[in-house]
């Protein structure tokens, strides 16, 4: 994780320096405002971070917003912003279906079981058709939750909880850890893209947050009650154009 952060900040500073130098030397005939340069640096940061963390949605949408920002010099003013954003959404869905199986090896928080019991089976994933939320109880120390364009509720029960890998892509997931015992340490890996995940965490856990936020929203709710005997639980991963809520119960 530290190495990836170093790559991100190194590339970000190099690109920021290049943008500032080019803007001051007037090497480009089109004149950019101060706020355009600031927005460019911000979107460039999002783009680099998305590439470093293999985030498809972050990469596509940052490029889409840059296209909207530079529509005039690129000669694409005939394309309205909503068309660009709509195309970005379709591209994100298509690339996610194609590339997610290849990205699993690079993102440990995206590991999931590739098939359920019954349902539609495609070349890259399978899922069940259900009218309501998919509700299950998981009784094991290592948990995998994968949600794609649906709603899922998971109740985790374990006397020796170790890890959880939660991947939400254009869906909603609620995961309850209130019937879980952590003997020493545990880790929860999350990857939320164009969706939302809510984690119900015991208030006596000592939560160590290491989640990267890429144009997403991370919130906490409830009161923590941590003491010297509280287990250390790390929440890591990436929230890209999505929402992660940690509720202490």
UniProtKB/TrEMBL annotation:
All residue ranges annotated as the LiaF transmembrane domain in the record: 8-102
InterPro entries referenced in this protein's UniProt entry, alphabetically: LiaF_TM
Pfam families assigned: LiaF-TM
Annotated keywords: Membrane, Transmembrane, Transmembrane helix
Residue ranges crossing the lipid bilayer per the database entry: 27-46, 51-70, 82-103
Identification of the protein by name: LiaF transmembrane domain-containing protein
Organism: Companilactobacillus paralimentarius DSM 13238 = JCM 10415
């Amino acid at each position: 994780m530290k190495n990836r952060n170093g790559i991100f900040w190194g590339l970000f500073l190099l690109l920021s320096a290049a943008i500032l130098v080019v803007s001051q030397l007037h090497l480009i005939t089109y004149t950019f405002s101060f706020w355009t340069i600031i927005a460019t640096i911000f979107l460039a940061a999002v783009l680099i971070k998305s590439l470093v963390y293999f985030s498809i949605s972050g990469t596509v949408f940052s490029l889409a917003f840059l296209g909207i920002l530079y529509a005039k010099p690129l000669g694409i003013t005939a394309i309205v912003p909503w068309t660009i954003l709509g195309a970005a959404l379709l591209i994100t869905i298509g690339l996610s279906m194609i590339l997610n199986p290849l990205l699993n090896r690079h993102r440990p928080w995206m590991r999931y079981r590739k098939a359920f019991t019954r349902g539609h089976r495609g070349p890259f994933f399978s899922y069940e058709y259900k009218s309501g939320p998919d509700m299950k109880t998981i009784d094991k120390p290592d948990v995998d939750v994968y949600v794609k364009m649906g709603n899922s509720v998971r109740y985790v029960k374990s006397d020796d909880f170790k890890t959880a890998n939660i991947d939400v892509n254009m869906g909603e997931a609620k995961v309850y850890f209130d019937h879980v015992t952590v003997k020493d340490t545990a880790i929860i890996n999350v990857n939320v893209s164009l969706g939302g995940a809510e984690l119900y965490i015991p208030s006596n856990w000592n939560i160590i947050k290491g989640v990267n936020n890429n144009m997403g929203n991370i919130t906490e709710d409830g009161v923590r009650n941590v003491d010297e005997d509280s287990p250390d639980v790390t929440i890591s991963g990436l929230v890209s154009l999505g929402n992660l809520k940690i509720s202490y119960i």
